[in-house]
Each structure stands twice: as structure tokens, then as C-alpha cells.
Amino acid sequence: MADKLFSFSVNRRIVAGLLVNLLSSICIVFINKWIYVHYGFPNMTLTLVHFVVTWLGLYICQKMDVFSPKSLPVRRIVWLALSFCGFVAFTNLSLQNNSIGTYQLAKAMTTPVIILIQTTYYKKTFSTKIKLTLVPITLGVILNSYYDVRFNLQGTVFASLGVLVTSLYQVWVGAKQHELQVNSMQLLYYQAPLSSGFLLCIVPVFEPLTGDGGIFGPWSLPALMTVLFSGLVAFLVNLSIYWIIGNTSAVTYNMFGHFKFCITLIGGYLLFHDPLSLNQALGILCTLAGILSYTHFKLVEQEEGKSRLAQRP
Asked: What are the residue boundaries of the Sugar phosphate transporter domain, all occurrences included (predicted)?
């Protein structure tokens, strides 16, 4: 009875974490796109605001005894902090330079890249059926990008870099939490200010500090309030990403992320009037078919694994 109650409690927390991530992740895409389209706020500066608000949110949480900080050696999380900068900055640049449809489909490539990284460097194995589901995902992304009327080289480069760095970051998050024996909040508490420091050194090189388009420029109150709200939502996104990966896996997080796929695409077409050709629609359906196939085979394998364990004497 106690085991069932514990299992129910754990499952309920996981569902709650997934729900928070679902709502905040969809919301942050539309808010950031709105900021880029209507206010022209600089990308890296917006990323820096997200990091600072995330750290302040965690600072308040630890003061309220939500979690206890654990001392971590900086040298062991430097690469994680740098990948965090690249993960957020490149995905934001991809969103800024691509339509929401292309931005969202490019993110679907994170799953194949994660599997490639885990197979090559962590010696994990995946069944042939799982590997074959990556074919329609990849073909669908290529098909959509090829027929996207807003397709551009700069957007493609940012999307590709975003996929690569995001994949590394998500794999490293799970690995570091187990290696350092810390929970999601403890790791993010030290990583967020370190990432902020890195960006603080880079921002003046690439973006103006004053005048039009600068962080200290003549921004309207609605623009500043929207940027601040974006930072609060980013805090929820970052926290839920860490929590989900730490309590499940990088691949599980990514496959759940694809459930946000359709909602975000529909929102892009409705709110920002992104064009959609027949060939792009076929690409989307192709990617979605691969995602659903992957999810089906993964669940079947998990059930078979549980059955084998239950049959052992």
C-alpha cells in the first residue's frame, strides 16, 4: 500500500512538472516572437534577462527553504554553463530569423542528435525500430525547410547550431545531476549566475548598450513589462527542463516536447500569419508520424522490459 502511494505521488509530481513545462514552453515562444516582431529587443540581452531572472527566482526559492544550496566546484560546471548560453541564445536567434513553423520543426531534430550523441559517446544502444523512426522526422524537417518561403541561410545556421548545442546541453544536464549528486534547483542555482557572467562579457561586443536597440535605449513601458514577463516565464521553462531531465531522461523530455509541436505550429500560423504550403504541410505530417512512431515503440519496449523483470525469479 505504501509503495502504491509513493508511486502515485511520484507520478503526480512528474505530471505536474510536464504540465508546467508544456504551458511555459509554448508561452515563451509566442512572447519572444512578439518581442522580436513588435519591439525589436536585442536577442542576447533578452537571453541575459532570462538568466538573471532565473537566478533571482532560485535565490528567492532557497530563501523560502524550497531547496538547500549545495556547494559545487565551478570548474565542473563551466561547460554546462557555456552550453546553457548557447542553447538559449541560438534557439532565440533561430526563432528571430525563422518562421515559427521552421523554428519548431528544426527543434524536432534534437531527438536524432541526442540519440547519436548517446550512441557514440555514452555507448547506449537503441533498437532498429527506434532508429528507423528518425528517418521520417529528418525527412519532414528537410521538406518543410526546403519549401519554407522565408527560408534563409542565416536562420538555418542558427537553427542547426541551436539543435547541436541544445542536444549537448540536455545530455549533460542529466549526466551532471547524477555525477554531482544534486537536484535540478541546486545545479541551476550555480549555473544560472555563471551563464549570466559569460553573457555579460559577450553582450557589449555584439549588441549596443545605449540608443535604439540597446539595453539602455528608450524602451516603452509595455516593451519592458513584456520583457520582464518573458523572463518570469523563462524561469519556469528552465526550472521545468532541469526537473524533467533529472527525474526522467533527455530523450523523454524531448519526446514530450514534441507534444508541444502542433500547438506551437498552429499558434504561429494564427498569431503571426506564417505561410504554409502543401509541401510544408506534408513535411509536418511526416515529422509528426515519426514522432508518434518513436513514442509507440519506446512505450512497447518499456513494457517489455518491465515484463522481463517481473518474470525473473
From this structure: 23-294
Give the pLDDT confidence score for residue 148 in this predicted structure.
66
- Count the neighbouring beta carbons within 10 Å of the beta carbon of residue 288: 19
pTM: 0.70
**CA dist 163 to 2, 83, 120, 158, Å?**
42, 11, 17, 9
Residue recorded with cell 514534441: 258
With 90 as the cut, is the pLDDT of residue 73 above it? no
* Dihedral (CA of 225, 228, 233, 234) sign: positive
Q: Assign 3-class secondary structure to 35-83.
A: HHHHHCCCHHHHHHHHHHHHHHHHHHHHHCCCCCCCCCCHHHCHHHHHH
Domain assignment present for residue 235? The answer is: yes
Q: What is the pLDDT of residues 183-196, one digit of tens each?
A: 777 888 888 899 99
Q: Which domain holds residue 110?
A: 37-299
pLDDT tens, position by position, 115-138? 888 888 877 888 888 888 888 888
> Mapping DSSP to helix (H, G, I), strand (E, B) and coil, where does residue 263 land?
helix
Q: Give the integer Cα–Cα distance in Å for 306 and 229.
A: 43
Q: Give domain status of residue 30, yes or no.
A: no
